[in-house]
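Hi U.,

Before I forget, here's the chain from the pilot set. I'm dumping it here mostly so it's searchable later in email.
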Amino acid sequence: MANWLKRITPILVVDEIERCLAFWDALGFDRTADVPHGDRLGFVILEKSGLEIMYQTRASIAADLPPMAGTPTGGTCLFLEVMDLDATIEAIAGAPVIFPRRKTFYGMEEIGVREPGGNAVTFAMAVSD
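Structure:
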């Protein structure tokens, strides 16, 4: 699987995103996407110079992906952008699926699994409509 990985993006799981934004603003990160959840932010992507970090609230995860709500990671998940999702799925065959393959509003096709240590890992590939 040479050249299969394009990027790894941490997703920090928190109770409230808004109080985290000033920290990243001060470091020069820009908000490139955000998704409301009720009257608060449920998800946000922050970017600077090709580097990316995401935040998602526990409430948003519970509503969007209930099987991930109990992720035993202490609040960190991995988001890996790959070149070929089919080949990646073949390579990780047998890994427990957290959520099945799906297309997202942000232009990705993705699947969520648990790696052997129990951590949540999302593999995603950009798709065109």
